[in-house]
């Protein structure tokens, strides 16, 4: 790492700390004051110990007598200082800790708020694992230097205090401090700079090890059934060894730094002893001063490390903050309008010349025009990659098309308010998403007006009532993280019931019953036709398609034809091939 | 999570990583030499004051110079020892932790699917990553300091004892109450940090839910509800962290008080001893320095204890996994190889239930002949997937035995079993690598030409040619650049090159686009030719193509025979299933 970038990290790191201080000024002042006082007490303590030896011990040993009063005073002063130190430790550590925790909590809330506000298109571009670590470890890394920061501030105050008192004591002994402190800082700085690239390499290898483990455990079934456990262990072992090497290289540098950091203050103490003897001879100082200064160097060493801790954490902090900031400043929100829908009944969905493409990608939809008349069922049919799911996403305004309009009962979707849109439409995706909640929580989602009767009615409509009745606590049964206690088909039916519970005026099923037994699927689709909603269905199974009033046949992002299933079978050879592929082979 | 205490965890952990003891004597020797440097300074101060400054003929600069020179040499030596010690310690501990990672990784793979499913997969990953990292990070930061502090505590006590046993007794007495207080708080502290970790897990789970479910949350307009849950989880974590911090600071403030007690006790007792002629100014001063060396470890412990708690907790979680014995164990050298030739299957009164769960399979007793194709059908939850898992020994039956060509599965070496019996799982899992590398997963020695031949033999040559880079096309994370059906194609070729004698297919339930479906069916026909095949079937075509159909209902085999005969059995489960299949293709 060049010195320019490392200075840059220092500068940016300090800016992050500055922001933290501005956010929690009160706690910072409490902890920094506590810490500064702590540092000054350390200096004072050295002089008090020196003074006690010089003024009480030396005379007492010389005169072979001591007054009880002066001993009591010694005890009172030393215990008093201890008490003060405890108070300052409370202020420093609680202040710094609370400040760190509050900042973490504040930014975790801010980051997750952005997650909720940003559109699905943004989510698609970011891996779940990344978003998870943005909210957890990145926020943590950003504010990691906060914990030792007040200690470092206190240390600087302590060093300034020490230098002042050193000069007041004796200018020659003060020169030892003048030489020693910059040396300590230089050592710390040098160490942080050399350490940072090693830490980054270790972090990179950690990520690699995690990625391999994640993939390997994900594919555990394949690994096991192919008997490849040993080979997988070897593959994993390569990265483990590289990580080990990276960490050992971190350790070696530490091995240089730590003992040097220990020894430097001792060298200072020895220098004081030597110079002090000379100054004593010339009568410039007494034994008291000599012992005070020697003692001071012994106790200074430890706090100076706090500065190293802060500097050491800065690169991680900066990297974490950059990722957090990227989320906080991410753009692309879909703003909602303020419009409402005219009241009541199934809604009409209309696509007019809709076009959509991913950034720099080929067009996904081109000139798509069709209508789902109020209360009717329209099936969307097309091969993989023909744009069916994008149509479903546009219908729900999960994305906005690049051109053309999508409207519901003649109101353009961007004009609708968020509650109006959510209340009128519901999407059931192919991969069902189940919350770590009870059955009731999953179906009702605390939406107003959805009571237990409505929940049961929806479950019945989704053919899910029978298996829910078989659960130990029925509606109160917790279904576990992502619904792990349910089968795929059960999860699909549960999410379908969730959609129905809101009594949507437009329901979009994106291959939403694929894991349901065919018999059950047919029953569901039959029931939905009676449910008083317009229905847009992305389907593969011919039985499902045949239930639709009208079929929209999509090919490479364009509507090739619309009509009834029978008409399209007649007029469109491509369509015929597509929907009869199963039987051709199965005969 | 087990209830192992802190020290019990460390003991168990050390016994599982014997590498940690490598060259321990040398490392400790170096550590002691490093300590010598730390106590050299107080001794130098004492010598300097008593014999140099307060020397008989007034301050003696040359004597002091000699003392300083000797001490500097000792310091230099101790610094070098410190470097060597740290280096050794890091090499040994990181090597041991690397070993622990690898061992845990392998152990997790060896646990049966039953355990892998009951635990969350993500948490398994953190056993070999985050948890080990926590131990490693602790060693990197606080661990060495704590170790040296312990040494410093011992060495400084010893030197103090040499200077004055009376004053040493005073110091130890001053710290005695602190030890009691810290022990008292230790339990509460451990509980407080446990709460922090639990809440941290809850917070992560809540964030994960909001991210994975982003689309659902948006389309139902329930961002407010989710936001509240997130806030609660984040805030509860903060409160737990603050509580743990309060307990920790309170606990260790007792150390500070003790330091004050010790210092004042030493001054008072030292002065009184000096009056009796048992103490010089230099020795008393040295003693005050030594007390500081004695106090420092306590300060360091204060700063590092949180990390230590986390490290021990991480270690405990790893031990919890390692302590689970693989319940489906490889008989290895004690096992036998499967007999050569085609394999037949026998289920000998097999029953299965998950621990504490209902019976999944009950008393299944059947024989499957070699080289025939079987389709196992039944509704969701009927037990057909369990049937496949027992057949491939991903699980062992609760009762009864599974035999292949007369050999009980539990006696077959895994190396033999896994090369002769191959299962194609539902989702056709692919690794983030090229198509070729994914196929070679089954048979690493295959050349590109042989791979291409395999594709051609299965009628997939044109499909392969249509890929952007042919065999070298990367399939992406979990194979996501391919469609679901295409992933199954690759998984099928992978099974084909493994050339098993018994092939178990767990058919995917989700629909595949029709063009790929046609390819899939065709390839399937070719792969299964001449092998004993058991397909867990969801499709009519698979059942029709099978030599025999086995119908499972509520954990029991209720019908068995060729498709044509079973269909004719009126009102039978299979007849109903067939009717619904027909309905959807009408």
Automatic annotation (TrEMBL), chain B:
Domain ABC transporter: 345-579
This protein's GO CC annotations: plasma membrane
Location of this chain's protein in the cell: Cell membrane
The ABC transmembrane type-1 domain, residue ranges: 25-310
SUPFAM superfamilies in UniProt: ABC transporter transmembrane region, P-loop containing nucleoside triphosphate hydrolases
MF GO annotations: ABC-type oligopeptide transporter activity; ATP binding; ATP hydrolysis activity
PANTHER family according to UniProt: ATP-BINDING CASSETTE SUB-FAMILY B MEMBER 10, MITOCHONDRIAL, ATP-DEPENDENT PERMEASE MDL1, MITOCHONDRIAL
Protein name per Swiss-Prot or TrEMBL: Multidrug ABC transporter ATPase
């Amino acid at each position: 790492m060049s010195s320019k970038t490392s200075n840059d990290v220092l500068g940016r790191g300090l800016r992050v700390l500055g922001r933290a201080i501005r956010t929690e000024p009160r706690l910072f002042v409490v902890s920094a004051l506590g810490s500064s006082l702590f540092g000054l007490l350390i200096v004072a303590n050295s002089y008090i110990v020196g003074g006690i030896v010089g003024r009480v011990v030396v005379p007492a040993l010389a005169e072979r007598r001591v007054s009880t009063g002066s001993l009591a005073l010694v005890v009172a002063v030393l215990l008093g200082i201890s008490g003060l130190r405890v108070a300052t430790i409370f202020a420093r550590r609680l202040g710094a800790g609370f400040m760190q925790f509050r900042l973490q909590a504040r930014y975790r809330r801010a980051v997750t708020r952005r997650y909720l506000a940003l559109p699905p298109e943004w989510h698609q571009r970011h891996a779940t694992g990344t978003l998870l670590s943005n909210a957890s470890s990145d926020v943590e890394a950003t504010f990691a230097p906060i914990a030792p920061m007040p200690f470092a501030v206190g240390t600087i105050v302590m060093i300034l205090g020490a230098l002042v008192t050193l000069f007041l004591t004796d200018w020659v002994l003060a020169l030892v401090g003048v030489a020693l402190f910059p040396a300590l800082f230089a050592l710390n700085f040098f160490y942080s700079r050399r350490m940072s690239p090693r830490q980054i390499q270790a972090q990179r290898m950690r990520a690699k090890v995690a990625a391999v483990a994640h993939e390997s455990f994900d594919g555990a079934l394949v690994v096991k059934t192919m008997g490849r456990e040993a080979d997988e262990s070897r593959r994993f072992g390569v990265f483990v060894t590289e990580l080990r090497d990276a960490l050992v290289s971190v350790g070696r540098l530490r091995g240089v730094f730590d003992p040097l950091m220990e020894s430097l203050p001792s060298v200072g103490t020895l220098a004081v002893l030597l110079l002090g003897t000379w100054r004593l001879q010339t009568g410039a100082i007494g034994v008291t001063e000599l012992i005070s200064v020697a003692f001071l160097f012994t106790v200074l060493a430890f706090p100076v490390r706090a500065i190293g801790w802060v500097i050491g954490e800065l690169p991680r902090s900066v990297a974490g903050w950059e990722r957090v900031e990227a989320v906080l400043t991410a753009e692309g929100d879909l703003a909602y309008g303020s419009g409402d829908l005219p009241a009541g009944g199934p809604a009409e969905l209309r696509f007019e010349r809709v076009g959509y493409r991913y950034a720099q990608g080929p067009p996904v939809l081109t000139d798509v025009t069709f209508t789902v008349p109020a209360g009717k069922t329209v099936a969307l049919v097309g091969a993989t990659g023909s744009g069916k799911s994008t149509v479903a996403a546009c219908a729900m305004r999960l994305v906005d098309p690049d051109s053309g309009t999508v409207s519901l009962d003649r109101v353009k979707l961007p004009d609708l308010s968020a509650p109006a849109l959510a209340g009128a439409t519901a999407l059931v995706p192919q991969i069902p998403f189940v919350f770590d909640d009870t059955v009731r929580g999953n179906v009702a989602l605390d939406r107003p007006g959805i009571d237990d009767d409505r929940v049961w009615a929806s479950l019945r409509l989704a053919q899910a009532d029978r298996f829910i009745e078989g659960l130990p606590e029925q509606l109160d049964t917790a279904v576990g993280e992502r619904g792990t206690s349910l089968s795929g088909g059960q999860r699909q039916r549960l999410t379908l019931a969730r959609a129905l519970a809101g009594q949507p005026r437009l329901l979009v099923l994106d291959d939403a019953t694929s894991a349901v037994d065919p018999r059950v699927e047919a029953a569901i689709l039959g029931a939905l036709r009676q449910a008083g909603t317009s229905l847009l269905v992305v389907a593969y199974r011919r039985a499902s398609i045949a239930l639709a009033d009208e079929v929209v046949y999509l090919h490479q992002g364009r509507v090739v034809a619309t009509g009834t299933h029978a008409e399209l079978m007649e007029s469109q050879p491509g369509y015929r091939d597509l929907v009869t592929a199963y039987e051709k082979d199965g005969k | 999570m087990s209830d192992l205490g802190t020290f019990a965890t460390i003991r168990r952990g050390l016994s599982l990583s014997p590498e940690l003891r490598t060259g321990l004597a040398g490392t400790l020797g170096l550590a002691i030499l490093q300590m010598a440097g730390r106590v050299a300074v107080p001794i130098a101060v004492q010598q300097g004051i008593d014999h140099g400054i307060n020397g008989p003929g007034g301050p003696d600069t040359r004597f002091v110079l000699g003392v300083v020179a000797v001490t500097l040499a000792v310091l230099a030596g101790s610094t070098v020892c410190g470097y060597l010690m740290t280096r050794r310690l890091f090499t040994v501990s990181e090597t041991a932790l690397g070993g622990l990672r690898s061992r845990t990784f392998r152990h997790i793979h060896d646990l049966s699917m039953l355990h892998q499913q009951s635990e969350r997969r993500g948490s398994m990953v953190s056993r070999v990553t985050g948890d080990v990292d926590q131990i490693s990070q602790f060693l990197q930061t606080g661990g060495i300091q704590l170790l040296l502090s312990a040494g410093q505590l011992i060495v400084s006590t010893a030197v103090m004892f040499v200077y004055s046993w009376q004053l040493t007794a005073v110091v130890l007495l001053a710290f005695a109450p602190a030890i009691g207080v810290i022990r008292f708080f230790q339990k509460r502290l451990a509980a407080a940090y446990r709460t922090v970790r639990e809440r941290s897990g809850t917070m992560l789970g809540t964030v994960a839910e909001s991210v994975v479910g982003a689309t659902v949350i948006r389309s139902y307009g329930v961002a407010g509800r989710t936001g509240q849950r997130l806030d609660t989880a984040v805030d509860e974590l903060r409160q737990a962290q603050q509580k743990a911090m309060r307990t920790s600071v309170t606990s260790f403030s007792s150390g500070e008080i003790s330091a004050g007690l010790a210092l004042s006790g030493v001054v008072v007792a030292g002065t009184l001893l000096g009056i009796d002629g048992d103490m010089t100014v230099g020795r008393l001063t040295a003693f005050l320095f030594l007390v500081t060396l004695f106090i420092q470890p306590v300060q360091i412990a204060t700063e590092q204890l949180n990390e230590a708690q986390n490290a021990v907790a991480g270690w405990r979680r790893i031990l919890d996994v390692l302590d689970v014995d693989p319940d489906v164990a490889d008989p290895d050298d004690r096992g036998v190889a499967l007999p050569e030739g085609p394999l037949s299957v026998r289920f000998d009164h097999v029953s299965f239930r998950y621990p504490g769960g209902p019976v999944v399979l009950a008393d299944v007793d059947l024989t499957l002949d070699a080289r025939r194709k079987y389709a196992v059908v039944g509704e969701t939850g009927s037990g057909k997937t369990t049937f496949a898992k027992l057949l491939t020994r991903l699980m062992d039956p609760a009762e009864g035995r599974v035999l292949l060509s007369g050999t009980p599965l539990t006696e077959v070496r895994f190396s033999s079993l896994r090369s002769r019996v191959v299962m194609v799982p539902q989702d056709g899992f692919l690794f983030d690598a090229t198509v070729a590398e994914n196929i070679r997963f089954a048979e690493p020695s295959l050349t590109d030409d042989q791979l291409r031949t395999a594709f051609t033999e299965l009628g997939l040559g044109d499909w392969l040619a249509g890929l952007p880079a042919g065999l070298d096309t990367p399939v992406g994370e979990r194979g996501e650049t391919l469609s679901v059906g295409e992933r199954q194609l690759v998984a099928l070729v992978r099974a084909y090159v493994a050339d098993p004698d018994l092939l178990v297919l767990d058919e995917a339930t989700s629909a595949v686009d029709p063009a790929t479906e046609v390819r899939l069916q065709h390839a399937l026909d070719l792969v299964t030719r001449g092998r004993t095949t058991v397909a867990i079937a969801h499709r009519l075509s698979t059942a029709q193509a099978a030599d025999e159909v086995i119908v499972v209902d509520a954990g029991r085999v209720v019908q068995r025979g060729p498709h044509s005969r079973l269909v004719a059995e009126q009102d039978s489960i299979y007849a109903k299933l067939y009717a619904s299949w027909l309905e959807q293709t009408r």
